[in-house]
Structure formats: C-alpha cells, structure tokens
UniProtKB/TrEMBL annotation:
The keyword Hydrolase applies. Pfam families: CN_hydrolase. It comes from Lapillicoccus jejuensis. The lineage of its organism: Bacteria, Bacillati, Actinomycetota, Actinomycetes, Micrococcales. It comes from the Bacteria. This is Putative amidohydrolase.
Length: 272
C-alpha cells in the first residue's frame, strides 16, 4: 500500500483560496499512491480561532469540492485533513461548528466524515467554539493489492487518549490515520505518542502534521509513519514535505501472531 503524507506548511500571509488550490496541486502530484493524507484544519488555520466562523462550511462546501476533484484527478483515496464544519442544526451544547475530517474515494466521492471527539483548548479554542464528535469512524481502504485494510480515523489531540484507539482496535482497525495541527513546543509528545499507539495496539500509525507558523503558533512538522512493531518507518522534518511510504497492511496480523500481546488483555474487576 503506497501512502503519501503531505506535511503542508502555511502562514497567515497566504490567502485561504490560494492555499486550497496549492494543496489540491500537491494532491494531484501524488498520482500512483493508494492513500494521501493532509493535516488537520489546514484551510481554516489550526490555531486561527478568530477566523473559524467565517471560514466554516458544510461538508459539501468549497474545500470539499476542490479536494474531491483533486482526489479524482490523482486517482487516489484522499483523507483531506479536516475542515471547520458548519451544520444548520446545532449540537447538544448549542454550537453549530465541528472539527470534521473528509475522506474521498478515487472517484472524487465523499466516503466518510469523522468529527473530532477530543477538543483541544482546556475550555478555550475548540471546546469553546466547537461541538465534540461522539462516533467511532472506521473505513475499509484499498490496500493496493486488490484487498482492503480496516482504518480508524482520529484527529490530533485524540492521540493523547489511548482508550479511543483501543475502541478502534476492537472494531477491527489495522491502521490509524491521524491528521494533526500539533505545535512545535510539544512535538516530542507527538512522536512518542504515535509510537505508543502503534506499539500498544499493534497497528500502523500514519500521522500527518502541519508545518509553518500561523496565528503566532510554530507548528511541529515531524509527520511520522510507525509500523505495528513500533519501528519508525519514515519521519519528516520541520518544513513542507511529502512522505511517500510503502506499507504492508498484513504486518499488523503477522506481528500479532509473532508477538501475541493482545491475546493477554485482561480487564480487572469485570471492567468493560
């Protein structure tokens, strides 16, 4: 399975429309890959809270239209990072914004959406402005060999919550795809947690971060691909970069057979 992680760099001086077109061009350049991944909130600005309202759109909006066409032009499955989704119906907290991933098929059609479950900001930022998602999302993605691989979708701050990944594991995940806007000041946590999720769940981790500086936040880069064994297969630097990696989805099952740690899981006291 040939995967491309597009570590997009951007700053406050780049108009959103130009950034969307530039990202679409980068996706088109990945023809020949099976899966292409973009970072979290790259169009709206991962930390640019004050502009989220004006840049919000529905899942059939302008960014989705351009990204769907780019996926079709390149003939790839595209996890187009996430958008600030605006929905006509407010959620349980009375807000109408979500941090929502968009997944497109090679025909340009929308395959799935995932609304970020864990909101970053400790009462500000995402928790103040956005609703929380409440659904696990798994998809069967083409594996490049005529089959599919069960893939769990999560976003950035989700990476800090291992119980989410256990739940995805229990639903059959062999791969975790993780778009992010993770800042440079905590990038050591980013790489460590990516390896931890791979090791403890014996899954592939495909974690695509943002580069550049926006809204006074320096982004961490270091997009990373980790094998189910915990070995780092590829890692980007701090600038804009495309990681192109061939992964073997079957390694998850092979490693679980060779080192069957998951078979020894026990929940004390009847916990479920």
């Amino acid at each position: 399975m040939k995967v491309a992680l597009v570590q997009l760099a951007y700053g406050d001086d780049e108009p959103v429309r130009e950034r969307v077109d530039r990202a679409a061009d980068l996706v088109r350049q990945q023809r020949g890959h099976d899966l292409v991944i973009l970072p979290e909130l790259w169009a709206a600005g991962g930390f640019d809270y004050r502009h989220w309202g004006e840049r919000a759109e529905e899942v059939s909006g302008a960014v989705a239209t351009v990204m769907g066409q780019a996926a079709r032009d390149a003939g790839v499955t595209l996890l187009a990072g996430s958008i600030v989704e605006q929905h006509p119906q407010a959620g349980p907290e009375g807000k109408d914004l979500w941090n929502t991933q968009l997944l497109f098929g090679a025909d340009g059609g929308l395959l799935a959406t995932y609304r970020k479950i864990h909101r970053f900001g400790f009462g500000a930022g995402e928790p103040k402005l956005m609703e929380a998602g409440d659904e696990l999302v798994l998809v069967d993605l083409p594996d490049g060999a005529g089959g599919t691989v069960r893939t769990g979708l999560t976003t950035c701050y989700d990476l800090r919550f291992p119980e989410l990944y256990r739940a995805l594991l229990d639903e059959g995940a062999r791969v975790f795809a993780i778009p992010a806007a993770w800042p440079a000041r905590r990038v050591g946590h980013w790489t460590l947690l990516a390896q931890a999720r791979a090791i403890e769940d014996q899954c592939w981790v495909l974690a695509c971060n943002t580069a550049g500086t926006h809204a006074r936040h320096e982004m961490g880069g270091h997009s990373i691909v980790v094998a189910p064994t915990g070995d780092v297969v590829a890692e980007a630097g701090t600038d804009e970069e495309v990681l192109s990696v061939d992964i073997d989805p079957g390694l998850a099952d092979a490693w679980r057979t060779d080192f069957p740690v998951l078979a020894d899981r026990r929940l004390p006291g009847g916990l479920r």
